[in-house]
Amino acid sequence: MRRSLLAFALLAAAVSGRAQDPATSAANGPSLAFELRPAQASYWAGQRALAVVTLAPGELDVLAEPAIEIFPEDAPGVERGRFSQLAAPAGSLRWAQPVRFAEAATFRAEPRLAAEFGRVERRGIMTIQQGLGRRLVSAPGRTVVVKPLPAEGRPADFSGLVGAYSLSGSLDADACAPGDIVNLRWELRGPGAEDLAEPPSVAPGREFKVYPPRVEAREEGRLAVSQALVPVSTNAAAVAALPLSVFDPAAGAYRTLAAGPFPLRVAEKPPEPDPAADGADPAAAEAPRDPAADLPARAPGTPFVPGEPVHARFAPADSARELFVLGAGEAAVVRELSPDGAWVRVLRRADGATGWIPASRARTELY
After folding, report:
1. Using CA atoms, how far apart are residues 167 and 242, in angstroms rounded to an integer?
2. Contact (Cβ atoms closer than 8 angstroms) between residue 32 and residue 112
3. Residue 186: what pLDDT?
4. Closest by alpha carbon to 56, among 25, 81, 28, 91?
5. CA-CA distance, 203 to 236, in Å (whole number)?
6. Final residue in a domain of this structure, among 266, 300, 329
7. Same domain, 130 and 105
8. Is pLDDT above 90 for 76?
9. Domain of 185: which CATH number?
10. 123 - beta bridge partners?
11. What is the pLDDT of residue 25?
12. Fewest beta carbons within 10 Å, which of 56, 85, 151, 214?
C-alpha cells in the first residue's frame, strides 16, 4: 500500500508541472539533501545504515505528510524499515529510514520527496492555509557499493552480525554449593542485536550441568539472555567466558567479543546438626515424619530447574486450566505445598508467573 501511494504521489507531483530541478530548487523553493549514516565509501553485506533526507522548504510550508523514496524498488538486497521524523536545524524537516544491505551489490540511491506545499498564515486565533499543489523535490543521488564479507579469517562460529556491538554478563551469585542453581545473564547491544536467532551457549566444562539459554528480552538494539548452570563438584572455580563472533565494518575484520570469565566459589554445605549431640532424645528424632517432607519438592523458597517441560495449572488438579509451560532448564522457585502434598505452587523466575505442578516434578535433575 505504501508503495502504491508513493508512486501515485510522485506521479501527481510530476504531472502537476511543479517538479523541482535540484540545481534550481535551493534558489526558488524547496530543496532536499541526502546522507547515509555512517558515512562510508562502501558498505558490507549484512551492515545496517540510516538513510536520512533533510528538506529545506524555503519560504513555503509543508501542509501534509510527504511521500519519500530513497532506494528504487528493484535495488538488490535492500531491506527497508519505516520512516521516522528526526530533529532538524531551524527551518528544515528531517526524516530517516533504517536499512540493511543484505547482499553484495552495486546500485543507485535516488532520493525524492513528494509533498503538498503552500503557505500558512496565522491571524489571531485563526490559521489560514493556501495550498500551492504537490511538488516533487529530488536530492543528488549516489552509487552505493555493498561488498561481500571476506572469506579469509571468518570464524566457524560467526554469528552473522555486522556492526559495532558490546557484550556484558554476570552471575546472580558468586558462591554456592554443589547442586545449587546459578544463573548466568548476559546482554548484547548494537544494531540488530535482537535478530540473533540462536543465542550462544556458555561451555563451562564438566564441573557443571548446563541448561539451554533462554531469551528474556528482544527489543531494538538489545538482546537479553539467561542460562541456568548447576555446579556438580567443588572443583568448579569459575564459569568460562561466553564468546560471540561478529564482523566490525569500521575495521573490516572479524572480532570475537567475550563476557567473563565469571569467578565462582563452590563449597560443600555444612552438615545438618546432630540432635543427639545437643542432648535431644534420639528416639524423638526418629519419630514418624510428615509424608510431605519426603516428597521431591523442597520447602517454600527452594529453587529448582526441571529436566523436562512441565505444565503449570491454575489449581492443584490435573483438570485445572493450564497457565503456562515451565520449560526444561527454566529456573523456578517453590512457593507453597498443597494440603495433600501432591502439588506445589511454583514461581517462574523469568517473568514471575505462578502455577501448580505435581510435586514429583519440582526437582532439579541433580537433586
Report:
1. 9
2. yes
3. 95
4. 91
5. 13
6. 266
7. yes
8. yes
9. 2.60.40
10. 126
11. 41
12. 151
